[in-house]
UniProtKB/TrEMBL annotation:
It comes from Ceriporiopsis subvermispora (strain B) (White-rot fungus). InterPro entries: FRMsr_CS, GAF, GAF-like_dom_sf, Phosphatase_reg/MetRdx. PANTHER family: FREE METHIONINE-R-SULFOXIDE REDUCTASE, GAF/PUTATIVE CYTOSKELETAL PROTEIN. Gene3D superfamilies: 3.30.450.40. Residues 101-196 form the GAF domain. One of its GO terms (cellular component) is cytosol. SUPFAM superfamilies: GAF domain-like (SSF55781). This is GAF domain-containing protein.
Amino acid sequence: MPHADTAYIPQGLSKAEFWQYVYDQLASLLEGQRHWVTNLANASSLIYNALLAFTPHFGDGDRAVNWCGFYIDSPFFPTPRLSTSSADDPIYSHRLLLAPFCGKPACQLINVAPGKARGVCADAYVQRKTVLVRDVERYPGHIACDGETKSEIVCPLIATSGGQETVVGVLDLDCLALAGFDEEDQIGLERIANLVVNSCDW
Ligand code: SME
């Protein structure tokens, strides 16, 4: 079984080299596995732990990434089989649900319905493009899950199948520092989001 060693990040990497390293580790980790829950669980752990080891750009100090994970469109979650809940229950209606992540507990539901969408994740999902937030307090509608978060980046997960593109959710990272993420991180994370989403069956 392929394995990725997230505890080891070579010293002195540039950001571009770091993101390529994480990409290669992730590609190896996801090989031969197509279930989205399993792949997103491993992807969030690998990215989060790699960033904690990537000093001086991030690391485990005041520039640390304090949350890394996914929100996925509710129709992709399993429908209940053993309980009496109805699939028509509002909690199963179309919205982003908390999916595999690393970090502190976070908000479970994010509304993406027209006129009700609010926050960084909803904006990235609805607009189908990455949202890079240098100061979360200045972002209208930002949903604060952890009061210590200062900046954030959210990439849409766009699955490509039969020439058709479907947005299935988002990859979200939070940082303790203002302007924690830059355009180089955006390029690296967009490649990783693309790898992850297209390594899964939806
Ligand atoms: N800040 C996000 C909510 C998710 S947490 O950051 C984990 C938002 O505004 O959508």
